[in-house]
Automatic annotation (TrEMBL):
PANTHER family with a match to the protein in the record: AMINE OXIDASE, PROTOPORPHYRINOGEN OXIDASE
A Pfam family assignment: Amino_oxidase
Entry protein name: FAD-dependent oxidoreductase
Organism: Variovorax rhizosphaerae
Record domain Amine oxidase: where: 607-670
Length: 675
């Protein structure tokens, strides 16, 4: 069956924009392209996305058969530095009219701020492995995430870093040792230079003198505490003066100081007063290698904070996280991201959602877009994108309509505790032949599923004028080979994009977090044992699940990590169990057999999944890859725009912020276009 929308031939007809993909990038593009009455009068926006829900990698679902539990693709925590993302969330909630029973009325109802995080440090040479949390408590900053700033200038953040390093050293060192190391003048110079108006105007005045001071202070510290030829050990006399053992507080202090001096030197040598192109040049290097090039010791480069950075961004070749040697992150965008993450946030550095990511973010976005008149076509799988006859623009979009609807329209939500939520599977009763589709095991989100209720061919000039492509390169490669064949720059973008499969599981536990034996207050943790190296307590979601009172869990815990390419096809349930048996005792000794599995009765429920499909894979930013990314604006073909965390953005990395920023940039580019 061929379907086609009727062409609007009336004078002043709106420009038709087809957005392909319902993840954060595509929905951000739709949101900002319909943000005002003037834009809605000019553009007719339609979102086409596969399956029964929005969200892409951020989609979540409610399992109505098991306590209305929240089932996520992985672990999603928003950073307080996600400026475009929070601007979008705040604007959406300000416009949203939720149902009267909804527990979410304003955006702060849907989010819990978090000021603490921890990385796990492993004692060297100890069998079985011995771990200890290294907890970081970050300060509360003024404002709210998403507040407008004059410009997130890295120079100001470097100044904050210098202040933090100075305070850290002053607070932890004996005054006599501090005087001997004489680091204060160097950090004070760095602070003044970072805030200097002349430097910000492109002057290099003072850079050389500051570099000399900083190098001297760094060398005094390193020579005082790190014996020659033994970069992995602290000088015994210094250690003895401050205390020893595992974890070694002094060793941690020196790692942080070494990081501060290495980052400061790197900024001075490679970035200061050199403009945006300097970051582009830096992206050819791996972040750890860049730190080492500016004096960071091997123990610093292998430390738990650096490991956590690579773990949280799944930054390992082929998903092999067994060694940091497999890690690769472009240094320029990583430096910018780390500075913003630690010093550039508003209010709190981390924000955890009080319901599923889909419930907290994509429910209000869907309902606001629907109220604006944006059409959202669920169950629309893009199967082909073809160019016009002259190869200058997209001419045809081929779509499988995956299902037909009993009442002609699909209503996507279930209600849990008064909140409109996305279910973990289609609402089969609304689909034609829904019970048979369910019995057949149809999975509308699987690339191997070809279920179709008909084909929809969208044609240029009739069904669309402009296209926003908001699916990742792994999907683009499959559905749009003609674009790569027609354009070398496009071909390079697709070929050089790197992605990795991930694996995750969630546990619902009988005891609360305080009964697990966890020794720190922090509940966002990374750099732990592979394969599930990152963990967060998400028990703040319990009030919005619907468990029977007699068997209600007291804690919800999320774990995730890379899924190595050589482990496919994955068995996520088996993988989770093997990891729990081997590693959970190091985190939760009170509910585990020493060195072994959890005790019976601890776990009430479990959800496991492997994310290896093209749209689910995490997009990486390895060294040397950023130069191949394309910006969201007109992308090599005249009517084609891009949205997603695989495009060129401020962070150019796999995160919610990059995807939302990309969508907003695509919308801005379209709005600025003259047709």
């Amino acid at each position: 069956m061929q379907q086609s929308a009727a062409q609007d031939t009336t004078p002043g007809a709106r420009i038709k924009v087809a957005i392909l993909g319902g993840g954060p990038g595509g929905i951000s593009a739709a949101f900002w392209l319909s943000a005002t009455p003037a834009l809605r009068a000019r553009y007719e926006v339609t979102v086409h996305t596969l399956g029964w829900r929005l969200g892409g990698k951020c989609a979540s679902g409610r399992n109505m058969a098991v306590g209305g539990r929240i089932e996520e693709h992985g672990l999603h925590v928003l950073m307080g530095c996600y400026q475009t993302a929070f601007q979008t969330i705040r604007a959406c909630y300000a416009e949203w009219t939720p149902r009267a029973s909804s527990p979410f009325k304003v955006w702060t109802d849907a989010m819990t701020p978090q000021w603490q995080a921890a990385v796990e440090e492993q004692a060297p040479g100890v069998t079985p492995p011995l771990w200890a949390p290294w907890t970081f408590t970050l300060p509360e900053f003024s404002g709210q995430p998403g507040d407008a700033v004059a410009a997130t200038d890295t120079e100001a953040l470097v100044g904050l870093m210098a202040d933090a390093a100075l305070a850290m050293l002053d607070a932890n060192l004996d005054p006599a040792l501090a005087a001997q190391l004489n680091y204060r003048p160097a950090l004070a110079l760095l602070r003044r230079l970072a805030s200097s108006p002349t430097m910000q105007n492109g002057s290099t005045e003072g850079i050389d003198a500051t570099r000399v001071e900083l190098q001297g202070a760094a060398e005094r510290i390193r020579s005082r505490v790190i014996p020659a030829g033994r970069p992995d050990k602290i000088d015994s006399a210094t250690s003895a003066s401050m205390g020893t053992g595992f974890p070694d507080t002094l060793n941690r202090l020196w790692i942080l100081a070494d990081l501060a001096f290495s980052v400061g030197l790197g900024w001075l040598c490679d970035l200061c007063a050199r403009g945006p192109s300097a970051y582009d040049a830096l992206n050819a290097q791996d972040f750890r290698n860049w730190l080492g090039g500016h004096g960071a010791t091997q123990s610093t480069m292998d430390s738990a904070p650096i490991r956590a950075l690579y773990d949280l961004t799944f930054a390992y070749r082929n998903g092999d996280a067994s060694t940091l040697a497999n890690g690769s992150m472009a240094a320029g965008v990583t430096f910018r991201f780390v500075m913003d993450m630690v010093f550039g946030y508003r209010h709190a550095p981390f924000w955890k959602m009080n319901a599923g990511t889909g419930d907290a973010l994509f429910t209000p976005l869907y309902q606001v877009l629907e109220a604006r008149g944006v059409k959202i076509d669920l169950f629309h799988r893009v199967t082909g994108i073809e160019l016009s006859a002259d190869k200058s623009q997209v001419g045809t979009i081929r779509i499988d309509q995956q299902a037909a609807f009993v009442n002609g329209r699909y209503q996507p939500f279930v209600v849990v505790k008064g909140l409109d939520c996305w279910p973990d599977q289609p609402l089969w009763e609304q689909l034609v032949d829904g019970e048979q589709l369910r019995a057949d095991g149809v999975n509308f989100e699987s690339s191997g599923d070809t279920t179709s209720a008909g084909q929809v061919d969208l044609t240029l000039g009739t069904d669309f004028d402009l296209v926003v492509l908001a699916v990742p390169p792994d999907v683009i490669e499959a559905v749009a080979p003609q674009l790569s064949a027609a354009n070398a720059r496009w071909q390079s973008m697709v070929a050089q994009s790197a992605s990795v499969a991930t694996e995750a599981f969630q546990l619902w536990l009988a005891p609360g977090l305080d009964k697990l034996g966890w020794t720190s207050d922090a509940t966002i943790v990374s750099a732990y044992a592979e394969r599930f190296d990152s963990w967060a307590d998400m028990s703040q979601q319990l009030p919005l699940e619907d468990w029977p009172a007699a068997n209600a869990p007291q804690a919800i815990e999320y774990f995730c990590g890379c899924l190595p390419a050589d482990a496919l096809p994955a068995n996520p349930s088996q993988d989770a169990q093997a990891w729990l048996d081997a590693s959970i005792a190091g985190l939760w000794p009170a509910v585990a057999v020493p060195g072994g599995p959890m005790k019976p009765g601890t776990e009430l429920s479990r959800y496991c999944r492997a994310n290896w499909e093209g749209f689910e894979r995490y997009v990486q930013t390895p060294a040397g890859s950023v130069k191949y990314r394309l910006p969201p604006g007109p992308a090599q073909f005249g009517n084609l725009y891009l949205a997603g965390d695989w495009t060129l953005t401020r962070f150019s990395g796999g995160c919610f912020e990059s995807a939302v920023e990309s969508g907003s940039l695509a919308a801005a580019a379209i709005a600025a276009r003259t047709i």
